[in-house]
Design brief:
77 residues, mainly alpha, 4 helices, 79% helix
Length: 77
């Protein structure tokens, strides 16, 4: 249940980041973000966190690291 404009914005935030909102919801979210520094900071944090996760998820392990980790795991067994 929403208890105010920040709660309503929080409910829309993930959909806004995913670009999965209706036009009316986008307008509602953007209107609130334009006037609320707290929610803008939360939006920027979520957006940067998503970017970090995307970046680290596509980076490949350095050559030989997986083999070394496997050797270390086998040595502990």
């Amino acid at each position: 249940m929403s208890h105010g404009p920040c709660d309503a914005c929080e409910e829309l935030l993930q959909g806004y980041l995913d670009r999965a909102l209706t036009d009316a919801e986008v307008t509602q979210a953007e209107s609130h973000l334009d006037g609320c520094e707290y929610c803008r900071r939360r939006y920027r944090f979520e957006a940067s966190l998503r970017q970090y996760v995307q970046t680290t998820a596509v980076e490949r392990m350095p050559a030989g690291l997986m083999e070394r980790l496997t050797e270390l795991r086998s040595a502990d067994a």
